[in-house]
Amino acid sequence: MVIKKSTPLRNIKVGDIICYELDSEGSKYSYGQLIAKTGAGFVFRPFNIIHTEPNDLTVDEILNSSIAGRHFILDVYTALDKKKFHDDGEWRIIGHESDFKLSEQESNLFLFSRKIGNRAEKINILGHSEQCSLEEADNLVAYGPYLGDQAKIWFIDLNQ
Fold this sequence. Notes:
The mean pLDDT is 85. The protein has five helices and ten strands. The chain has a domain at 9-100 and 144-154. By secondary structure, it is of the alpha+beta class. β1 (16-21) and β2 (29-38) form a beta hairpin. The longest helix is centred in the last third of the chain and has 7 residues, at 148-154. Strands 5-1-2-3-4-10 form a six-stranded mixed β-sheet. A four-stranded mixed β-sheet has the order 8-7-6-9. Helix content is 17%, strand content 36%. It holds the Pfam family Imm26. InterPro entries: Imm26 (IPR029278).
């Protein structure tokens, strides 16, 4: 993949489809989509699809693949705008689903948690929160942005 100049934050939108290198050699790529914007950043949905040519797949092929691992909040500032902290491959926007809309079921999913002292809350994709037990919070992704390299290790589970 040829390294692309940065994408300014103002041009990053819900519905954008992201391609990212799985290794620093640029021999394998995978994909995901920005599906919501929260106070902490954009929620990223990783897809279970690997390809050797980043631009050979259609948007439909990408969107029709299964989810790989856990949704997380991608630090789009470092991944797409500043392109910093990438030891293991570049991230870039390759397309956009213009009529993207979260399903009601998905928008109500509690995927994230935040702990404050001995209290915890779970947070859905739209940023709404409710109190929960510390144990329940431990099973959710911590609410906050993650660097691309961190996310590939911690949240994306590709059947390679």
